[in-house]
């Protein structure tokens, strides 16, 4: 597991503000972060919002699901899929997305940024 020595925890939203089995976009400084509440798995994930295929800011609007045990998001434009855990492109392409750690404490959702 990656050591999080320089991680700053950004307060993203209240748990009740999240979209069940979907994503929301969080703006942090000059970057957009897609935050996903995978209700069926009771897990949270965060990735860059930009799809690397055509550089569209769209992944927070993607459809989430599973490939076996791997949680994934599908870009709504051309359906390329990415692991929500590792960011790896599961469609066989070389592109990958950045992922961020997420934690939930006292009803608030935090995203770990460097
Ligand atoms: S822009 Fe996301 S798959 Fe093409």
UniProtKB/TrEMBL annotation:
It comes from the Bacteria. PROSITE patterns: NIRD, RIESKE. One of its GO terms (molecular function) is 2 iron, 2 sulfur cluster binding. Residues 10-111 form the Rieske domain. InterPro entries: NasD-like (IPR052034), Rieske-like_NirD (IPR012748), Rieske_2Fe-2S (IPR017941), Rieske_2Fe-2S_sf (IPR036922). Pfam families: Rieske_2. One of its GO terms (biological process) is nitrate assimilation. CDD domains: Rieske_NirD (cd03529). The keyword RNA-binding does not apply. The keyword Heme applies. Keywords: 2Fe-2S, Heme, Iron, Iron-sulfur, Metal-binding, Nitrate assimilation, Oxidoreductase. This is Nitrite reductase small subunit NirD. It comes from Sphingobacterium olei. The lineage of its organism: Bacteria, Pseudomonadati, Bacteroidota, Sphingobacteriia, Sphingobacteriales.
């Amino acid at each position: 597991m990656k050591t999080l020595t320089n991680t700053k925890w950004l307060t993203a939203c209240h748990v009740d503000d999240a979209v069940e089995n979907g994503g929301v976009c969080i703006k942090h400084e000059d970057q957009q972060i897609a935050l996903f509440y995978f209700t069926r798995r009771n897990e949270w994930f965060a990735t860059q919002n930009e799809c690397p295929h055509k550089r569209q800011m769209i992944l927070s609007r993607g459809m989430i699901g599973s490939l076996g045990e791997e949680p994934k998001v599908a870009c709504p434009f051309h359906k390329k899929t990415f692991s929500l855990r590792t960011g790896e492109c599961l469609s066989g392409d070389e592109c990958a997305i950045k992922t961020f750690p997420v934690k939930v404490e006292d009803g608030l959702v935090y995203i770990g940024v460097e």
